[in-house]
């Protein structure tokens, strides 16, 4: 009884060792086994043969893709053991089959492919039981199918003689097709059973670890698959792709990926997931895609049409299949980008886990491998997400790549670009700095940084540094040199606008002009250089020169909106209002939705055609605004990075639903009553005021700011018509959106003035100035009121400040002259009046600086 | 234009008109057998002044309007050529405008931006998330996902709009031109697999020309067409790149890589981050892949080899995975004096590192690569060692002062450590379920808000929409608290968003 028990324990132990490929333990176990029972001798032969064969293969692994080896090995001992086991025929049927399979494998290793096939035909692999089979046998069966496939590939089809292989007769063609089909089926079966084996082996292992004593045995770590299982798992899809049969290759990939992963298949899954993603991105499109749970299309443009005859259909079934991911609400991709993304996210998580962190020289190779496999995944992620415009998510993904990025230019640069595309400008500039350090010769990188500094960030000092980097490259920067001068010119130009001291202003203006001139001479075909030169000349009131360059810019780029706008403003500065209006209307025919042009149009219209026309334009603007932003989906621009972003975006959407009816401005307006909402608006309003005080920034303004501006323009027109009630209603609309905008307060002051409430007006102006102390128009009105109140010296102070801020505001000079005159300072007053007169002669209808300056 | 070509085109023009509706699909299938037709049509489009251009454009539009996919693709294959024709004419400020090409393109655009019921079409897709089970994975096996704010915000599957809704357009203006053309390219890219190699070549040519005309590179490419610069947008370039990528991988290696270079050149000059990003990625991902040119008829250069399945990374290298399991000791704050001595503190097994934190500890063994070396630490370092050992009970984790070479790694790992240490108390499963609850709570409250305010007719003011708060704390704790033995605080995250703060 005890003997039997120990015997069965021995058998279990043997089975376990075979499943876990612990061949070194087999000889000892065989010794114990033969001590137990005589009839076990044959089993002993089988085990010894197997053990020796496997040990041989472990020591001399067959390499994938290795050329046929020279001298074929002779494994005499193995053959002796196996022959002994077979010949005596005392074994149970199961063991007999196993011996045959081992024999066939031996034949393959020895290069006797035909003999191997003979053995497989005798055993009939399809009859072998998968249900209830011990784990090691699953592996044997899987290997057997793979080996059979390998042998079939080696042995020429149909007839053993090679002569009729290339005859091309239909019959032989037919048989090649059949043969190919048979080979593929062998590999696919092998792959399926291999996956099943790996799943079962892992299950057994984890069960074993729980049951066994603390002694953990040899760390049952990553089992290696070995040549045969690797081939079985992968050869089928390799053949599909080689034959140009993409549909089946993709199908096979998906089958492997849907099987529940095991530790051993992790690397395989990572590779296959990446490869499938590559195929989805490189070789498929939305229309040729089918989802993983659908049947593939019968005719697909993906398959090589010249090999149409080779269609292969899956025509086998197995009694047991590997477990696949299942459950309710499984996400199944419905589109090629979705599937590619899912696969890439899975690969990314694995690649990330394998990131080699140590930097010692011994691990150099490991580091390169882990970097390479990760950067392929990140590149593909970039392609997929870039196609869909999801830069926000992309920047988050690439941020995870940073653990690989030490001194890796490509990863840093891609992160910087993604941050830039996602609108995270400040971080982008920081990362770009690192990129400049890694690749100091590339002029594009500092230029990108300047673009951000000039645009959304308004970091002019930083921008100047980056611009200088490009200029210092000199000839090396080639075509980018002109761009460098353009960039630095823009920085100076913006600095000039921001400067509060007249001398600094003039200094920067001079520098800006110089830089633009340099850019223009370096790149005479660049319309931007000519245009910015014209703009800078216009700002310094050299109107005729500016006209010359703007014409040049328009010759280079006839439909450039900013050049056209500048031309109109220049004409208005020469008091050719009708010509200016014509230009604006022409420009509007090409850019009907450009609000900047429309603002100018309103001004020019009230000048040339009377306020009624201008009001019509205001109404038109409101209509455009509605059709434009009602359509735009906030999620268009990508997902917000933070929860707050999302909240704002959603609030915006909800607001858009309850928009007022614009044709009737008195009713149904947006009521922002809640405190929090007004807080958000406060923040936005601050953004707005800072925007307006410096310079209109590049890119579309916040839709709400545009709306508020439209209302304010309408209010201005009503004021010019002396209609305080209507003006007040319009201002109220703007105030609902941005209650603390200085522009709104300024407008309220003007309305109060119109109504004759000087004190109220003064209060409004003072509030406006407390928000934006450098708002010249408010200062001028306040100065006038103070003058009316006969507080001359205070009025003079305010107006002098205003002149400091903007020395080209002719009405301020005029008011200053009046104040000085009232104080009896006639000489100074005369000078002021003269300056005002001179400036007025070159003053445009709206300041030139409303034209955005950006790279 | 040869008379023969003209004959082919004229025949094509007449036969479709007489076709009964029932025969359309057969006719569509037969089109690809007309070998001379497609080249003849290309000629008509290229020669702007041909009398045939107008009827051809009209017929191509009829094809598109028929709704028959094969006919639509027949029209689409000419899209790159039509785009170039339009752009070159508008750039040359040719008084002879190609009105019929404009009409055809606008017609296709206006058909494509609406769905069957005439509603504005919105193209959207689902952003997959690893925290949701899919046909390819199970969240628990992915390992602990970083519970960052970003991850939470994107938690679950979100549907994202990538194109649309678009406005109907009656004419091309400078403002809408590229918006329309970008959308048309999007439609073209959706049918890339069905496009002929001639069409792909034409796309590559279009890309090159649009990007280099008027720039110094035009001389290098020896292109002698128009020489005025064409304005482009970044989105338009991204769509071009998508098409070029397909062409590159499907036989058009030479033209494709030239076109990609030209687009990148222009993107650099224009400082377009989006186009640079995608273009660089394609270039770098193809760098390793050997691209075979069109050697076999129609052979696609998608190739797959058998790859070894075992990890190619040696086991003793410190990876993000291995470092996660590593327990950092306080006393490893060793100042090694000169940074040259320290190459790296590789992952140390618990057995190797002195386990007991006693005052009589032996000098720490530091494994450098595979060999175990006992470093003779300077006296100063030893002192610090002891100090570190004694203060190890302090809650405050002192900054690791390691050599410069390793500081980056350790810094990284320390950060990781702080993340994982709290997570290691509840089991991995509990953590993912926390994430799951978190998302559920988040999305639930989110939906409530959304549905509550959805009716646009009601005079809701925005404030209600802004006021929602999502608190993971209560729910999360409820999930984790049943185990009495964990003393450490379970990770709790509370996000409050709203007007009532």
TrEMBL record, chain A:
One of its GO terms (biological process) is protein localization to plasma membrane. InterPro entries: Endocytosis_PI4K-reg_protein, TPR-like_helical_dom_sf, TPR_2, TPR_rpt, TTC7_N. It is found in: Cell membrane; Cytoplasm, Cytosol. Residues 159-180, 295-316 are annotated as: Disordered. TPR repeats lie at residues 409-442, 742-775, 810-843. GO terms for cellular component: cytosol; plasma membrane. Keywords: Cell membrane, Cytoplasm, Membrane, Phosphoprotein, Repeat, TPR repeat. Residues 160-175 have a biased composition (Polar residues). It holds the Pfam family TPR_8. The keyword Lipid biosynthesis does not apply. SMART domains: TPR. The keyword Isomerase does not apply. Its main location: membrane. Residues 2-398 form the Tetratricopeptide repeat protein 7 N-terminal domain. Component of a phosphatidylinositol 4-kinase (PI4K) complex, composed of PI4KA, EFR3 (EFR3A or EFR3B), TTC7 (TTC7A or TTC7B) and HYCC (HYCC1 or HYCC2). Interacts with PI4KA, interaction is direct. Interacts with EFR3 (EFR3A or EFR3B), interaction is direct. Interacts with HYCC (HYCC1 or HYCC2), interaction is direct. Association with the PI4K complex is strongly reduced by TMEM150A. Component of a complex required to localize phosphatidylinositol 4-kinase (PI4K) to the plasma membrane. The complex acts as a regulator of phosphatidylinositol 4-phosphate (PtdIns(4)P) synthesis. In the complex, plays a central role in bridging PI4KA to EFR3B and HYCC1, via direct interactions. This is Tetratricopeptide repeat protein 7B.
UniProtKB/TrEMBL annotation, chain B:
Residues 482-493 have a biased composition (Polar residues). Its main location: membrane. The keyword Cytoplasm applies. It is found in: Cell membrane; Cytoplasm, Cytosol. Keywords: Cell membrane, Cytoplasm, Membrane. One of its GO terms (cellular component) is plasma membrane. Pfam families: Hyccin. It comes from the Eukaryota. One of its GO terms (biological process) is phosphatidylinositol phosphate biosynthetic process. Residues 386-409, 476-501 are annotated as: Disordered. Belongs to the Hyccin family. PANTHER family: HYCCIN, HYCCIN RELATED. This is Hyccin PI4KA lipid kinase complex subunit 1.
């Amino acid at each position: 009884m005890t003997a039997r028990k120990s015997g069965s324990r021995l058998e279990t132990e043997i089975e376990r060792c075979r499943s876990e490929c612990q061949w070194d333990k087999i000889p000892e176990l065989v010794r114990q086994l033969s001590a137990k029972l005589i009839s076990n001798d044959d089993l002993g032969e089988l085990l010894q043969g197997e053990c020796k064969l496997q040990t041989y293969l472990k020591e001399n692994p067959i390499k994938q893709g290795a050329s046929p080896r020279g001298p074929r090995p002779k494994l005499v001992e193995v053959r002796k053991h196996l022959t002994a086991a077979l010949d005596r025929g005392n074994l149970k049927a199961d063991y007999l089959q196993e011996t045959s399979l081992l024999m066939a494998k031996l034949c393959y290793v020895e290069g006797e492919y035909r003999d191997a096939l003979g053995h497989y035909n005798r055993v009939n692999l399809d009859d072998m039981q998968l249900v209830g089979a011990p784990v090691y046998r699953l592996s044997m069966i899987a290997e057997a199918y793979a080996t059979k496939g390998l042998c079939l590939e080696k042995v020429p089809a149909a007839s053993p003689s090679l002569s009729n292989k290339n005859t091309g007769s239909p019959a032989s063609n037919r048989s090649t097709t059949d043969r190919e089909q048979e080979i593929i089926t062998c590999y696919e079966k092998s792959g399926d059973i291999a996956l099943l084996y790996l799943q079962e082996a892992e299950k057994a292992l984890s069960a074993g670890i729980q049951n066994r004593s603390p002694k953990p045995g040899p760390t049952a770590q990553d089992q290696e698959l070995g040549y045969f299982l690797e081939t079985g798992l992968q050869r089928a899809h390799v053949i599909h792709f080689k034959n140009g049969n993409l549909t089946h290759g993709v199908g096979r990939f998906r089958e492997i990926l849907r099987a529940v992963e095991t530790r051993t298949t992790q690397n395989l899954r990572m590779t296959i997931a990446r490869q499938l993603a590559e195929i989805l991105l490189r070789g498929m499109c939305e229309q040729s895609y089918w989802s993983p749970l659908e049947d593939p299309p019968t005719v697909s443009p993906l398959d090589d049409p010249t090999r149409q005859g080779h269609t292969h259909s899956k025509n086998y079934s197995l009694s047991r299949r590997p477990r696949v991911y299942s459950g309710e609400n499984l996400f199944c991709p419905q589109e090629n980008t979705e599937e590619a993304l899912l696969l890439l996210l899975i690969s990314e998580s694995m690649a990330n886990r394998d990131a080699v962190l140590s930097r010692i020289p011994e691990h150099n190779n490991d580091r390169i491998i882990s970097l390479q496999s990760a950067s392929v995944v990140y590149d593909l992620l970039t392609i997929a997400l870039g196609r869909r415009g999801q830069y926000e998510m992309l920047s988050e993904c690439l941020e995870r790549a940073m653990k690989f990025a030490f001194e890796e230019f490509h990863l840093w640069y891609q992160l910087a670009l993604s941050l830039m595309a996602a609108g995270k400008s400040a971080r982008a500039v920081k990362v770009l700095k690192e990129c400049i350090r890694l690749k100091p010769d590339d002029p594009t990188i500092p230029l990108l940084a300047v673009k951000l500094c000039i645009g959304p960030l308004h970091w002019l000092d930083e921008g100047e540094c980056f611009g200088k980097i490009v200029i210092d490259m000199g000839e090396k920067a080639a075509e980018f040199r002109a761009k460098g001068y353009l960039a630095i010119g823009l920085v100076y130009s913006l600095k000039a606008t921001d400067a509060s001291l007249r001398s600094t202003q003039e200094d920067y203006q001079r520098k800006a002009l110089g830089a633009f001139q340099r850019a223009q001479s370096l790149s005479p075909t660049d319309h931007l250089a000519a245009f910015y030169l014209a703009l800078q000349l216009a700002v310094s009131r050299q109107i005729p020169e500016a006209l010359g360059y703007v014409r040049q810019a328009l010759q280079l780029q006839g439909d450039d909106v900013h050049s056209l706008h500048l031309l109109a403003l220049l004409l208005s500065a020469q008091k050719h209002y009708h010509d200016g209006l014509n230009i604006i209307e022409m420009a509007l025919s090409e850019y009907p939705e450009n609000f900047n042009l429309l603002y100018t149009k309103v001004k020019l219209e009230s000048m040339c055609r009377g306020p009624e026309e201008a009001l019509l334009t205001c109404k038109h603007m409101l209509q455009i605004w509605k059709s434009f932003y009602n359509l735009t989906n906030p999620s268009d621009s990508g997902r917000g990075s933070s929860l707050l972003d999302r909240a704002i975006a959603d609030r915006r959407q909800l607001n858009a639903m309850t928009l007022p009816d614009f044709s009737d401005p008195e009713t149904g307006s947006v009521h922002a009553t809640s405190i929090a909402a007004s807080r958000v608006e406060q923040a936005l309003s601050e953004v707005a005021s800072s925007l307006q005080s410096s310079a209109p920034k590049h890119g579309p303004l916040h839709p709400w700011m545009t709306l508020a501006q439209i209302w304010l323009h309408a209010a201005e027109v009503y004021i010019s018509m002396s209609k305080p009630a209507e003006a007040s209603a319009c201002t109220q609309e703007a105030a609902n959106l941005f209650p603390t905008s200085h522009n709104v307060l300024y407008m309220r002051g003007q309305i109060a003035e119109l109504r004759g409430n000087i004190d109220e007006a003064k209060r409004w102006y003072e509030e406006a100035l407390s928000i934006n102390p450098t708002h010249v128009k408010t200062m001028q009105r306040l100065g006038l009121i103070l003058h009316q109140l006969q507080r001359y010296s205070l009025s003079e102070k305010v107006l002098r400040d205003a002149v400091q801020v903007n020395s080209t505001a002719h009405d301020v000079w005029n008011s200053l002259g009046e104040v000085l005159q009232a104080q009896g300072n006639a000489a100074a007053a005369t000078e002021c009046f003269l300056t005002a007169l001179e400036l007025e002669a070159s003053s445009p209808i709206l300041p030139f600086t409303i034209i955005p300056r950006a790279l | 234009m040869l008379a023969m070509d003209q004959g082919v085109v004229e025949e094509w023009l007449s036969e479709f008109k007489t076709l009964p509706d029932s025969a359309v699909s057969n006719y569509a299938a037969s089109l690809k057998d007309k070998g001379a037709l497609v080249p003849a049509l290309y000629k008509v489009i290229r020669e702007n002044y041909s009398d045939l251009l107008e009827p051809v454009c009209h017929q191509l539009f009829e094809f598109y309007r028929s709704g028959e996919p094969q006919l639509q693709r027949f029209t689409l294959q000419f899209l790159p050529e039509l785009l170039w024709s339009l752009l070159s004419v508008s750039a040359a400020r040719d008084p002879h405008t190609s009105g019929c090409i404009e009409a055809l393109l606008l017609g296709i655009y206006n058909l494509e931006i609406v769905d069957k019921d005439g509603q504005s079409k919105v193209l959207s897709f689902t952003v997959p998330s690893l925290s949701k089970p899919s046909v390819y994975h199970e969240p628990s096996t992915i390992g602990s996902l970083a519970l960052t704010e970003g991850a939470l915000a994107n938690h679950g599957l979100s549907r994202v709009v990538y194109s649309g809704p678009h406005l109907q357009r009656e004419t091309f203006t400078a403002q809408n031109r590229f918006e329309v053309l970008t959308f048309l390219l999007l439609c073209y890219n959706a049918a890339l697999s069905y496009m002929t190699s001639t069409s792909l070549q034409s796309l590559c040519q279009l890309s090159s020309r649009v990007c280099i005309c008027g720039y110094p590179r035009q001389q290098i490419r020896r292109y002698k067409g128009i020489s005025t610069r064409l304005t482009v947008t970044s989105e338009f370039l991204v769509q071009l790149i998508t098409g070029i990528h397909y062409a590159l991988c499907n036989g058009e290696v030479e033209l494709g890589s030239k076109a990609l270079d030209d687009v990148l050149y222009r993107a650099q000059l224009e400082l377009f981050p989006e186009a640079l990003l995608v273009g660089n990625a394609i270039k770098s991902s193809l760098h390793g892949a050997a691209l075979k040119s069109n050697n076999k008829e129609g052979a696609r250069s998608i190739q797959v080899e058998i790859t070894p399945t075992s990890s190619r990374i040696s086991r003793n290298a410190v990876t993000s995975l291995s470092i996660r399991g590593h327990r950092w000791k306080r006393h490893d704050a060793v100042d090694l004096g000169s940074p040259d001595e320290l190459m790296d503190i590789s992952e140390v097994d618990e057995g190797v590192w002195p386990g007991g934190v006693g005052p009589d500890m032996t000098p720490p063994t530091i494994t450098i690569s595979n060999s175990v070396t006992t470093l003779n630490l300077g006296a100063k370092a030893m002192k610090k060692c002891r100090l570190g050992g004694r203060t190890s009970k302090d809650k405050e984790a002192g900054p690791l002062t390691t050599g410069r070479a390793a500081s980056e790694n350790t810094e990284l790992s320390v950060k990781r450590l702080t993340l994982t240490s709290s997570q290691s108390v509840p089991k991995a499963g509990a953590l993912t379920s926390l994430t799951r609850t978190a998302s559920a709570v988040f999305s639930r409250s989110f939906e409530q808000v959304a549905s509550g305010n959805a009716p646009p007719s009601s005079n809701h003011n925005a404030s209600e929409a802004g006021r929602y708060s999502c608190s993971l704390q209560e729910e999360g704790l409820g999930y984790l608290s049943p185990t009495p033995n964990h003393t450490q605080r379970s990770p709790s995250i509370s996000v409050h968003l709203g007007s009532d703060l």
